[in-house]
Design goal:
Strand content: under 5%
Largest sheet: none
Shape: globular
Number of helices: 21
Helix content: over 70%
């Protein structure tokens, strides 16, 4: 039955990959895969109560990610509704494609460490949509944003879910992971940029950098922008202070922004309220992408419940003696299945007595799990969000971005090994 479970996952995965070939939306394939995987688990289980407990346990983790995603997307959409991102785009005066690429990637890299790679991707993709009209060029920028966001998230305890897991679990400390991984992570972003830069030539049309339209006042634009961005930045601070999950901080930020919006619209005309209310922003939130995320995470949680991922990690440990190779492979596997259960399996296999806090094993695992998912568009939360927002084709990403992500991934590992030789 385990073979059947893996088969259902593989077939569903192929359905997502071949979305455009079979003309079936990836969200449909993902939801079917998630539901069918758990159906197989149900037939395998001899204890329905325990199985339901496992499902609800995983669902609570999945729901926290989905609420976080929906909250972030709503805040970003509301800022965009008020043309708040013009505050940034109007200050990006360069029309050079190359300079814009570097500005966007550097912003993404450091913003991802401050917020997290998922939120940053949503924000930066929205910015790029306002700056670039040409669809092919826009996709290239979005693809490299995913690489930069994952690289930026790997060296910060708040930047990626897996890094946060290792930090909370005591495997790494905040100061150490920042000082040891910032250079490899920076290389992971810079190497793809250096390879991609020569292919971008010419300038963007001037008209794309400003529209100046809208009926909100400048004051309202600034209030919504800074309240929204301030709310996003406060999420990791809220988590550190309260020890509550990040989605609670995101919902708090959304609630505050919603309240501010209601106060701003209190004395406005009805048609204005309809166009600038939170309800309008909620209409723009990409729910198919949220459901796609739900299906993928349900499918992966089914594999985790039946020990498939832990077994895979055990097989790697038994058959490959070199820990660096194992961690490198775990990073690459995270581009196929979610990096969270892979890291959780690794944390379960190797305790702190085997590898103490801030051991090189944990540091390299944080880097590889954070950046390895960039190899495929559905290999990271940032990639899934970008795929949903811009309808990126799986094979387009493989052809245009994957090789760049892999070069950066291995370059970062190489730099890390040079910095900290065994």
């Amino acid at each position: 039955m385990v073979a059947l479970l893996v088969l259902v996952f593989v077939v569903g995965y192929l359905g997502i990959v071949l979305e455009h070939n079979i003309s079936i939306d990836k969200s449909s394939s993902a939801l079917l895969t998630g539901a069918l995987c758990w159906t197989v688990v149900a037939f395998m289980s001899h204890d329905p109560d325990h199985m339901n407990e496992e499902l609800l346990h995983h669902l609570s983790e999945i729901a926290s990610i989905l609420f976080f995603l929906m909250g972030a997307m709503t805040i970003v959409e509301l800022i965009d509704t008020y043309d708040g991102f013009d505050i940034i785009t109007d200050r990006i005066t360069t029309r050079s494609q190359t300079k814009l690429l570097w500005i966007i990637c550097i912003l993404t890299f450091f913003l991802s460490a401050l917020l997290d790679n998922l939120t940053t991707t949503i924000v930066m993709v929205t910015l790029v949509k306002k700056l670039i009209e040409d669809q092919k060029l826009k996709l290239v920028f979005v693809g490299i944003i995913v690489v930069a966001a994952n690289a930026g998230g790997a060296w910060s305890p708040m930047g990626d879910v897996t890094t946060t897991m290792l930090w909370i679990g005591g495997q790494i400390t905040a100061t150490n992971v920042i000082t040891t991984l910032i250079v490899p992570s920076l290389v992971c972003m810079l190497v793809p940029l250096l390879f991609l830069t020569p292919s971008l030539k010419g300038e963007l049309p001037k008209k794309m950098f400003s529209n100046g339209e809208g009926h909100q006042t400048q004051a309202e634009k600034y209030i919504i922008f800074f309240t929204g961005i301030g709310g996003l930045i406060s999420v990791p601070i809220f988590k550190t202070v309260t020890h509550l999950p990040p989605f609670m901080g995101m919902l708090l930020a959304l609630g505050v922004l919603w309240l501010v919006t209601e106060l701003l619209l209190k004395n406005k005309e009805e048609h204005f309220r309809n166009n600038y209310s939170v309800y309008k922003a909620l209409e723009k939130v990409d729910m198919p992408s949220v459901l796609f995320f739900l299906g993928i995470l349900l499918a992966v949680s089914a594999l985790q419940t039946e020990g498939v991922l832990r077994g895979l990690a055990g097989w790697l440990s038994d058959n490959i003696s070199n820990q660096t190779v194992i961690v490198t492979l775990i990073g690459l596997l995270s581009s196929i299945v979610d990096n969270v259960p892979l890291v959780a399996a690794s944390m379960g296999m190797y305790d702190l007595s085997t590898f103490p806090t801030d051991d090189r094993f944990w540091e390299l695992l944080a880097y590889c799990a954070g950046t390895g998912g960039s190899a495929l568009i559905i290999g990271s939360a940032a990639g899934v969000a970008a795929m949903g927002m811009e309808k990126i084709n799986f094979f387009w990403y493989v052809k245009k971005i994957s090789w760049l992500a892999l070069i950066g991934y291995f370059a970062g590992i190489g730099v890390y090994l040079l910095m900290f030789p065994n």
